[in-house]
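Progress narrative, work stream C.
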Amino acid sequence: MILIRLILSFCKIGLFSIGGGMATLPFLYELSAHTHWFSYQDIANMIAVSESTPGPLGINMSTYAGYVTAGIPGGILASLGLAFPSFVVIIIVSKFLERFKNSKTVQKAFYGLRPASIALIAAAGLNVAKTSLLNTELFSTTHQIGDLFLIKPILLAVFLFIGQKKWKLHPVLWILAAAVIGILFQF
């Protein structure tokens, strides 16, 4: 039963997450809240693993989420569930796009989808930042501002941001550096 729910949930995510892998994050947060299959911390881990491994981010995250939820069959079915709607939509769109590509309505629809994708990605980014950089649970009990911020991750994020802007190294090197720093300083 969980495998059927898993594939249907990821089909829904695949159908509505327009804008790439990061656009799946709001749907993963919603799925986490409704099913409790994985936590928000698990989602942060999914992002870290997915960004560190080859392949599309959305597929990597669905594989991770499915595996955490239902093992290897869950990972496979969640990945297939996420990819299947895109596959079907691409086939359908390719049949009709040539006929409608100059349509003002189609162009306006694509124009409207861009800001929606940006909003979904920004919302997901804020959720990741909250999970990774803030300790809201401790803060809600102590109400002391010093307990809200996770200093080590914030310093690492600032260092990586500045370093990436200053030295244009390959993103994989920054990911490896973050992993090594996380291991050494026990984040």
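Work stream C, second folded protein:
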Amino acid sequence: MDQTTNFARHDRKRAAERLATFVAQSVDEARAVEKPFFHLEFDRVFPDDIYAQILRLMPESADYRPMHGRSKAQDEIQTRVKIDLFPEYIRNLPAEKRALWDVVGRALCSDPVKQAFIRRLAPGLSKRFGADFAQVGMYPIPILTRDIPGYLITPHTDTRWKGITVQFYLPETDANTDIGTIFHDVLPDGSKPKATQMRFAPNSGYAFAVGTDTWHSADPVHNRVKTRDSILLTYFVDQGVLKVLRNRGKRLGNFVLNEIRHRI
């Protein structure tokens, strides 16, 4: 399935469609876990040859820009950076890298992948949105993220603007499985002890429908790793004029800021 690099633009569309079919199947085959909240766990998200290319064609540090939010900076150094996997953001990458990440981004934004997540995360989505959860609009934003030692994020449930949270881990080996995302229980006294932890293993990941009980966090990334690379695929609720305009306006605003950064 070595289909992503060194081909014409029209070939990328077919490659993205094939990759979308594979990823959607991976979602359909993912393990469903009930506790501490309903979520999916993945062992093989991408085809092996595509994953090898992902590792080989990682962008350079200068290609990323700071990612703001709940993540913590250390001594004024931004510990999480990102690249939006939309065509307008990756167009400044070298040709081979641009071809790969264009295909990956298009596949992750595809309708087959979105519908697979909606099907498999039905318990969490119906709990939040009711019986008509499948009719709720979801706007996908895939980003390639890079964390460095010192990155951490405290327990939180994700903003209600989000409908589905997905993270695909991208390490080269399974030497540091202890830096995966932590899921928390919520006890009657309000405390939130650690319930389980995702393994930061090659080509793995998790997904859940955002709810009031989806507490998760990340311990500080230790200095035994140089970077913690992953893809965050977030589906923002895309229903109603406010949310529709916000989602597209945010994408446009990020594009403008990215263009300014490259010109500076």
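The domain at 9-263 is CATH 2.60.120.620 (Jelly Rolls). No further action is required on this item.
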